[in-house]
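Appendix B. Chain record.
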Amino acid sequence: MTPRETLELAEWRRRIADLYARVRKVATHDPEAAWEDWRATRETLFREHPQSPVPAEARGAFRAWHWPYDPALRLEGVVQPDAPTETDVMAEPDVTAGPASVAASLRGLAMLVPISTGGGESLERIGTIRVPFASGERRLGLYWMSGYTGGLFLPFRDATNGNETYGAGRYLLDAAKSADLGPGRAPGSLVLDFNFAFQPSCAFDPKWACPLAPPENRLDLRIEAGERLAA
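Structure tokens predicted for this chain:
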């Protein structure tokens, strides 16, 4: 990137970080108001900011689409940590890149997940998170990004993928990019508000490289909340 683009990216990250700080603060007493701020601010950034993932020629007409806010999909999930393991690596069959090395600290299970542009990215699986849906508990893998800037990462797929939402899934948490909804009330829990689920950048332009949700994070239900591709 040019120096100007680097500064633009830094400014984009500051604005996203500020947005999620507001979301965590306001959501403690008015989750829907926090979501309205999140929705409107992201739409403005995607339409106007030079670091938007939307192609430049499409930004002027860009509009964000979401399901209406559903308070029943604001949940708290308890994290069940994985036991420390040696240098085991899980990879999807279509990933051709070799496994990344695992630090000798023996933290979690190293995984190589596929990237939208090909190859794979190393994640550390730190445990599972129990999600108390009304239809019954489901479990999702919770990850830490080993490279990039680090941070919690929670991608998922559901039965809306390929129609209303991006075929390879959406993200709920991506703390490397400040998308963090904060801790829950119970010890070892996280806020999982699916109204804040968003498409990865590659849903808007295939030039972006995005890690995809692994098989264990495919939900057998429709998550009609959060960002969608069209009305």
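Further analysis of this model is presented in Appendix C.
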